[in-house]
Amino acid sequence: MDTIFISELKVQTKLGVPDWERMVPQTIVIDIEIGYDLGPAGKTDSIADTIDYGAVVNCIRETLDAQSFKLVEALAEHICQLILNEFNALNVKIKVAKPSVLPGLKALGITIQRSAK
């Protein structure tokens, strides 16, 4: 299996359990690994034979701009399902981090992995 990766994607979104935390967009950092068969693209040199990572980034930015989430877990699940369903990925691994959320803490977050059914 081949992997397309997007590293340290910074996105503004409304995220947090208390209502006040979702009032103002905050920056989150996302790392994504997308499982896909890249063999055909390596042979044809055609974007049609791979996943357009620019389209993935734009899709994530648009959906996170339009929605809010209470839990990082729900946001990560949403992104995984989006990539699996919209881009026909074989599997997706997502790491979502909220930087500088607590004093003395660089970031906190989660990592999840989902496969196409």
Blueprint (SSEs and pairs):
Blueprint: E1 2-15, E2 26-36, H1 39-44, H2 53-66, E3 68-69, H3 72-87, E4 91-99, E5 107-115
Parallel strand pairs: 1-3
Antiparallel strand pairs: 1-2, 2-4, 4-5
Helix pairs in contact: 2-3
Q: Supply Rg.
A: 15 Å
- End-to-end C-alpha gap: 16 Å
* H-E order: EEHHEHEE
CATH fold annotation: GTP Cyclohydrolase I, domain 2
Q: Describe the sheet with the most strands.
A: 5 strands, mixed
CATH class: Alpha Beta
The helicity comes to: 25-40%
Our estimate of the beta-strand percent is: 35-45%
Instruction: Tell me, briefly, the overall form.
Output: elongated
- Structural class label: alpha+beta
Our count of domains comes out at 1
Main-sheet strand order equals: 3-1-2-4-5
Averaged pLDDT:
93
Level-2 CATH architecture: 2-Layer Sandwich
Per CATH, the superfamily is GTP cyclohydrolase I, C-terminal domain/NADPH-dependent 7-cyano-7-deazaguanine reductase, N-terminal domain
What does this protein look like?
The chain is α+β, with helices and mostly antiparallel strands and 117 residues long. The protein has one domain: GTP Cyclohydrolase I, domain 2 (2-Layer Sandwich), CATH 3.30.1130.10. The protein contains three helices and five strands, in the order ββααβαββ. Strands 3-1-2-4-5 form a five-stranded mixed sheet. Strand 4 and strand 5 form a beta hairpin. Helix 2 crosses helix 3. The longest helix is centred in the last third of the chain and has 16 residues. The chain is elongated and about 50 Å long. It starts with a strand and ends with a strand. The model has no long low-confidence stretch (mean pLDDT 93).
